[in-house]
Design goal:
This protein is an alpha+beta fold. The protein has two domains: 34 residues, no CATH class; 133 residues, 2-Layer Sandwich (Alpha-Beta Plaits), CATH 3.30.70. The protein has six helices and six strands; from the N terminus they run βββαββαβαααα. Strands 4-5-3-6 form a four-stranded antiparallel beta sheet, with helices on both faces. A two-stranded antiparallel sheet has the order 1-2. α1 runs antiparallel to α2. The N and C termini lie far apart (52 Å).
């Protein structure tokens, strides 16, 4: 019989009691009814991920963009994520994706940036290509997916009037984060 906690076939920890619910053995805090045990986790982890080329150099020219967007989407899918939208400009990328709770956002982004950097170096014949060190990863509620998707789709239109650095500052502030201008553009 499966156990939710390793070694639970022995006595539960102090303050807990052994409970058998929905075919699972679990340690339930004293005073919590067995009917309140949740047998499955439910998540909807949606992120708007933004990162730029090193020094915001405009390396992502039009001929390679669509292939890069496809490649980035494939990298997210290879980590069991779901890509909702990918787009960007010559110096930066926006990704809207659902990620699994078992995947750390930082690790997914590190992998995406490392593998796509290697791919772009070969594709562009530019051994000096690199992504900036940092990134932005902002949570998105289910009700805002279409708004963020349209925002990402309209990057060219949007950037006729707003440079990337201003856009990124605006995103950071909109999500209640402090700006550290000194380290933000490494």
């Amino acid at each position: 019989m499966p156990a939710l906690m390793p070694g639970l076939s022995a006595a539960p920890p102090p303050g807990f009691r052994k409970a058998f619910t929905r075919g699972l053995i679990a340690a339930t805090p004293d005073g919590v009814p067995e009917s309140s045990i949740m047998a499955h986790s439910h998540t909807n982890l949606i992120y708007h991920i933004v990162f730029a080329t090193k020094d915001r150099h405009p390396w992502i020219e039009t001929p390679v963009r669509q292939d890069l967007w496809q490649y980035l989407g494939g990298l997210i899918r290879s980590d069991d994520g779901i890509v909702l939208e990918v787009n960007g400009m010559p110096e930066h990328v926006h990704i809207l994706a659902k990620l699994r709770p078992s995947q750390a956002v930082a690790e997914v982004i590190r992998t995406v940036k490392a593998k796509s950097s290697h791919w772009l170096k070969g594709r562009l014949g530019l051994p000096e290509f690199a992504w900036q060190t940092g990134y932005g990863a902002f949570t998105v509620s289910q009700s805002q997916i279409e708004t963020v998707r349209r925002y990402i789709q309209r990057q060219e239109e949007h950037h006729r009037t707003m440079p990337f650095m201003d856009e990124f500052r605006q995103l950071v502030r909109a999500h209640g984060l402090e700006l550290d201008e000194q380290d933000m553009w490494d």
